[in-house]
Amino acid sequence: MELERESGWQLHPIGGDTGQAYMGTRNEERLFLKRNSSPFLAALSLEGISPKLVWTKRTGNGDVLTAQEWCSGRTLDKKEMYKTNVFNIIKKVHGSHSLKRMLMRLGGIVLNAADLYEQTLFDLAFDLRNHPLIRETLVYIKENMPEDKNSDEKVVCHGDISHKNLLMSTDNHLYLVDWDSVVISDACFDISQLMERYIDPLNWDSWLDTIEFSREEISRKKMYWYGLLNLLNDLKYHHQKQDYIRMNSELLKLQMILNQIKN
User: Which residues form the Aminoglycoside phosphotransferase domain (predicted)?
Assistant: First the structure.
């Protein structure tokens, strides 16, 4: 293929939604190669959040190919997502002023709560929009939208906190990878995604205590708001994929969260 000829590496596609990632091999060497990844990758590499960036190359058709060190290891198991090191790497991203400055220079998207709400509504399927539980959730989200922080208080958010995007190397270094969804937003956007996807809703409050999240009622209420928003987006994604088993599981979770809010 043309990309192999230009890069000088034999490319082996790696599974994923975008189809842009490859394992590159040449003689005994291996690299992780990706087409059109964010230029933000260099800053993440410098901070040790993603594996080391080796080189960047523009191909003949205008694509940008980036190469990172091939990190031997494994993605985390779902059951490991509650651990402190997962929260800590997310917290490290949120606390980095240099990452935020770099992303702002690159024209990073800044999203308020209202923007995220509109994104959720966009192309929401008719049958989802009219499901009683989802209608109730949309009403709650609209009526309880949190006040937006100003830009100075917003942080870099990964935007897709998933066990598939957390890589534990053989020397026990945890990396956060796949930054295609990165935005500048409220830290609750990321934290609630971790909470919504991997923590039993009955344990949300105790988990928030464990990570020493603010005990103020408004902060907890905001975290639940973002959790509901992320759950709706997951429902929308699995509906588009026609994964109705996961949809049904998420609807049960949605009912549980709404019941907790009412109580």
Answer: 40-212
Instruction: Report the candidate in 187, 164, 186, 188 with the shortest Cα–Cα distance to residue 176.
Output: 164
Tokens of 218: 């408004």
Residue 126, exposed/middle/buried by CB under 10 A (0-12, 13-18, 19+)?
Answer: exposed
Active site residue 205: no
Local confidence band at 4 (pLDDT 50, 70, 90 cut-offs)? low
pLDDT of residue 142: 96
pLDDT digits (tens, 9 = 90+) for 187-244: 999 999 999 999 999 999 999 988 887 767 778 899 999 999 999 999 999 999 999 9
- How many whole angstroms separate alpha carbon 40 and alpha carbon 235? 29
Amino acid at 181: S
Query: Which domains does the chain show, CATH number per domain?
Result: 2-70 (3.30.200), 75-262 (3.90.1200.10)
Are 113 and 192 a contacting pair, CB within 8 Å? no
The DSSP code for 62 is S
In this model, does residue 151 exceed pLDDT 70?
Answer: yes
Q: Pick the catalytic residue: 63, 115, 127, 160?
A: 160
Q: What 3-state class would DSSP assign to 181?
A: coil
Dig out the tokens for 155 from the structure: 């942080």
Which strands make up the sheet holding 166-169, listed edge to edge? 73-75, 166-169, 174-176
Structure tokens at 46: 């410098």
Radius of gyration (Cα) for the chain, nearest Å?
20
At residue 27 the predicted structure's pLDDT band, cuts being 50, 70 and 90, is confident
